[in-house]
Structures are given as C-alpha cells and as structure tokens.
Amino acid sequence: MGMFTKDELMLAKSVDLKEVASAMGYTVRRIGRLYTIKEMDSIRIYPDSHWYRWSGKSNTGITGGSQIDFMMEFAGMDIGEAVSYLLDFSGYTKSSMKIENPVIYQEKKKPFCLPSPMSNNLRITKYLTNERGLAEDTVKWFIDKKLIYESVPYHNVVFIGYDNEGKARFASMRGIYDHDGKAFKCDVAGNDKRFAFHVEAEHSDMVLVFEAAIDLMSYFEMHNRPRVHMIALGMTADNPLKQYLSDHSEIRSIGFRMDNDEPGRNASFNLAEKYMRLGYRTDITFPPDGCKDYNDLIKKLKSEKVRSGSIKVR
C-alpha cells in the first residue's frame, strides 16, 4: 500500500523511462521515433514516459502503460513500491512537499514464487569467479547452503533470504551479462522486504551489514568465513536489519560495511547513530579509497596477485 499526493504521482510519472530502464540494466536503443530494449525487442518506449509491448504477450496481463506499470511488470513491484522507487530515482524526498489530499493505493500482494532453477550452476559460477573475483569454493559454499542458484531461462544469479524458520521470503536476481557496464537487477515479485540475503552464525552476538549480496560474499571470503552474522540489505534502508535483530535477540554489536560512496557513507553514519541510541555497540569500516565496495576490493586484490605471479588465472 502507498500514500501519495497528486503532485508526487505527477513527479513519479515525469521520470524519463529510458533512464529508469538503463538503471535496471537494460540496453535502450532508438528505433525511428521510438525506443526499444535490446533484451526485449518487442518493447517500445514513447516518447520518454510510456511503453507498450507490440507482441501483446504478458503473463501478468500488463502490456504497456506508464513508468509505474513498467516497474510493476519488470521489477515485480506493487503500485506503492513503484511510485516510491520512481520518486527516489527523481531525487525527491518526502520532507520537500506537504501531504495534502493523499491518494491511497491498496493492491493484493502477488504470491511469492522462486524462479525455476537450472539443472546446474555452471554459468553463475563462471560469472562469480571470472567477473566478480570470488573463489570457486566460496561460490560452492553459498550454493550448497541454498543461498544462491542459477535460474531458468536467463541464467540470472538468484539470492535468497530466509526467515528464522528457514522459509524463503525474499529473493533478488542479478544478470550475469553486463551491457555497457550495466546489469539486470530485480527483486522477485511478491517478496517480503523485511527479509534479506544473510548468513547466520551460532554463538555470535555481532552482525555485519552490507548493501549488496556480492559484497557480503566478497567480505566472507576475504576474512576466511568469519563466524558472525552477516546481512545484505539490498539498499541503504534498514527494514531487513530491524527484522533480523528482532529474530536474533542475542545480537548486541552491529558493524556497518557499506559502500564507500556518498549514499553508503551517509547511511552508515545515520544507522550507526540510530542503533547506538538503541543500545547496540556499533562500528563502521569502509573499503579503502579507490574501491567503492568490498567486491571492488576483492577484485583489486586478485588482480594484484595475478600481476605479481602469486596466483594464476584459471
């Protein structure tokens, strides 16, 4: 459910759909007076804010519409999530506008269903080792723990988040084929955003907090599988962390290991102060200068070892 003013809805619908699609990892191309998406060439975008699927084929029944419909169809969001995403994308903050005559949307939540798995995980293993610098045994560890797998039919990496009873409640997908430095990223429809990709640790009172799942995996490898709780928020908001702390009352220390960029630094300082006031011990450590995140760092370390000859590229 979402509550938005008419002005907020107008702002959400003013965002350039081509830029949104590019940010999601799609390759936008011009066809005459219209635009298409390389990965889905039946899509047409016109001029900047609407789209349609000329083939008319859709499992959800959505064959076109506004930016909001695009996010619902291709990012698995409900209306409220789509509007919020577009407002964030535009740089809008709630404090910048008074709420008058709010419009309330309420929609039946889509059922959560994990994407179908491939019979093997060969392509995501190759991607995570060759492109993201992880060791093969690290990737295998996460596969064996049923935290990641390769999906049908596009070979996406699926990252799963479980609740404290071991039931999958959240999943996100990451494409293994980057286009001009951009990759497909999307949460699975119907997921519960109170939960997130994480690694549990018995007899630990500490949790380390990351933005992205691959950063968590990178840190996990670099620090020889540390015996602490680890969680990837998938964003800079802390809803999954609040749920995790509720499920793990033994945790008293929180280490923020978020991205070394402005959003990551701001979130780290704000969240560290927030949880310190709630009685937790908090600390912040960023990747070194020149590395945006911990995956950048592990790739840099691997590259330096290759150049020095201490390891060989397989």
Structure description:
By secondary structure, the protein is an alpha+beta fold. It has 2 domains: 2-105, DNA Primase, Chain A, CATH 3.90.580.10; 122-308, 3-Layer(aba) Sandwich (Dna Topoisomerase Vi A Subunit, Chain: A, domain 2). The chain has 10 helices and 16 strands. It has a 5-stranded antiparallel β-sheet. A 5-stranded mixed β-sheet has the order 12-14-13-15-16, sandwiched between helices. α7 links the parallel β13 (206-210) and β14. α1 (6-12) packs across α4 (79-90) and α3 packs across α4 (79-90). It is globular and about 55 Å long.
- How many domains make up the coordinates? 2
Helical amount: 25-40%
User: How many strands?
Assistant: 16
Task: Encode the helix/strand succession as letters.
Answer: EHHEEEEEHHEHHEEEEEEHEHEHEH
What is the CATH top level name of the largest domain? Answer: Alpha Beta
- The name of the CATH topology of the largest domain is Dna Topoisomerase Vi A Subunit, Chain: A, domain 2
Percent strand: 15-25%
- Mean pLDDT across all amino acids: 85
Shape: globular
Instruction: Point out poorly predicted stretches.
Output: 95-99
Strand order of the largest sheet: 2-3-4-5-6
Instruction: Give the helix tally.
Output: 10
Question: What structural category characterises the helix and strand content?
Answer: alpha+beta
Largest sheet features: 5 strands, antiparallel
CATH architecture call of the largest domain:
3-Layer(aba) Sandwich
- Taking the alpha carbons of the first and last residues, their distance comes to 49 Å
Radius of gyration: 20 Å
